[in-house]
Amino acid sequence: MTTRWIFGSHLSHDLPIVKEADKETDVFLFVEAHSRSTWQNYHKQKLVLVFSAMRHFAEELKNKGYTVDYREAGEKRAEEDKEAIRKKAASLKAQLASGAFHLDNKTTSYSD
Question: 2-111 sits in which CATH class?
Answer without folding.
Answer: alpha beta
